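Input (structure):
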């Protein structure tokens, strides 16, 4: 005979597994020290400024080429 499965227990078990996965993701994302978060923020800002600077330089160079 087939084993009888209680669907309510299956649903609850699946929900618990989803919570565990979400918790581990949050811990990985939020479980950093203040200095680690600050270092990541500074590096992201520096990266953004470098990209903005490159875009500005590229625009300036294209304008210089047009006037030649």
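Output (sequence):
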């Amino acid at each position: 005979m087939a084993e009888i499965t209680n669907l309510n227990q299956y649903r609850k078990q699946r929900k618990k597994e989803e919570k565990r996965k979400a918790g581990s993701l949050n811990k990985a994302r939020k479980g950093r020290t203040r200095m680690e978060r600050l270092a990541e923020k500074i590096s992201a800002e520096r990266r953004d400024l470098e990209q903005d600077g490159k875009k500005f330089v590229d625009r300036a160079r294209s304008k210089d080429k047009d006037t030649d």
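Notes: The mean pLDDT is 82. DSSP finds two helices and no strands in the chain.
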